[in-house]
Amino acid sequence: MNQELVIRIMPSVHGEGVTSPVQWMVRGQASDDETTIRQGCITDLQVWAEQVQNEAPEQWPEQVTVLLPGTLAGLHRLPVTSAQKKHLKQALPYLIEESLIGNVEEQHIVGLSETGRDSVLVGHLPVAAMQELIDTLAESGISPVSVVSENGLWHTDDQTIMLLFEQGMVTIASHEKPAQTVDREALPFLLGQYLHHDLIDQSTAVQVDDDKGTSEPENMITTIKVLSERSESETDIAQMTALAGEGGKIEYQGINGGSVLSALASLLSEQRRARALVEFRSGAFKCPRKAGKRWRQWRPVAWVAGVWVALEFVFYLGQGFWFQHQAAHYYDQNYALYKEINSGDRSVVDVRNRFNSLLKRAGTAKTDNGFLQVLNTLSRVSAQAGAKGVEPKSLDFNESGDGVTLNVAAASFEAVNRYLEALRDAGLKATMETANQEGNTVVARLSMRSS
């Protein structure tokens, strides 16, 4: 099961900083199992985080959630129109501007449309404080995936106001107004505001229902539920009883899980399932998408494989360019050879096909044109005794036929005539084309072909 680290920055009268009190716990994300709750300051949290990451990095939680106190993150419920809901992100600064002290541009503002209500929950905190929080946690390798206001988790029914006493501070929440955290000395004033606000809303409901015979509000505030990790003093009890009036009662209730952090972790799971969290890790502070633990384990292998694939790609790409260059070189050579053999062909596009066609024609051409027979007979006659005194000088042949022209040199015309008669006797059609006396030598040109 995935683990979740829940960090709670506790409200403090001394403000938030490195020495502000912090609680944290690691729990199953989908359960409310009892776990060890640690408490200290920010420095203690950083030391613990570094120790866990060094000793057992595989046990470091995937989900990290930070709960902000009401003294740091403000929360308001504001009415909105349907048009404002459609463009809520742009409308938020204008909706909250009147409720803020200071420049609205210096605030990180987030909103959540409430189901079934014409209202929106608006959370805000200084941009500088949000950035400082993220940077401080990042120093020890803590990267919050979710940052929410703990006051957005508290909720009550229509007839109850909740009070949480802790660290000299008090958190107050009702059904109509979101929770606020103030100094304990401001409780009488703030509790009166909450009671007065709810009574006004209930009186309005009574006036609407007067025509139906309703004379008293159905949802009067009847209970003030007090949550605390210790018993309150008699002075605090008397003060709350006086503020509640005769019709109200004070109800002391133990905190779910025995600690505020356990109760908040349980409420966090509920509202996360209901998608009702006012999430500060959005907008400019949106958490970058983080890879899962299993993927991070295989990331080195994937990196090596990626480098290998890249090198293979570069190798084959280079090989392709080299083969392309070689092909162009061989094409030029073959083209030059083809033009040398068949210079009359001027429309060469595919040298390979032209060469194949040329070789095919040469292979299927007739080889019985008589040339070889003439050459064989000529060779046989020249070796006989009748050819003595005759010396062949050059031989020409007709490519398209079987005619052969032989240039000879002889000692006399009689020797030429004897050689000519020997060729005829061998079956050739032999004639003397020319004969000249050049000194003591007769030069003759003989033409012959097969009979």
Automatic annotation (TrEMBL):
Keywords: Cell inner membrane, Cell membrane, Membrane, Protein transport, Transmembrane, Transmembrane helix, Transport
Domain (GspL periplasmic): residue spans on this chain: 293-450
Localisation per UniProt entry: Cell inner membrane
InterPro entries listed in its UniProt record: ATPase_NBD, GspL_cyto_dom, GspL_pp_dom, T2SS_protein-GspL
Family annotation (Gene3D superfamilies): 3.30.420.380, General secretion pathway protein M, EpsM
Domain GspL cytoplasmic actin-ATPase-like intervals: 20-210
Presence of keyword Hydrolase: no
Pfam family, one: GspL_C
Record carries keyword Transferase: no
Residue spans crossing the bilayer: 301-323
SUPFAM superfamilies in alphabetical order: Actin-like ATPase domain
Primary location group: membrane
Membrane topology category: Single-pass membrane protein
NCBIfam families for the chain: typeII_sec_gspL
Membership in a protein family: Belongs to the GSP L family.
UniProt name for this protein: Type II secretion system protein L
Organism expressing this protein natively: Kistimonas scapharcae
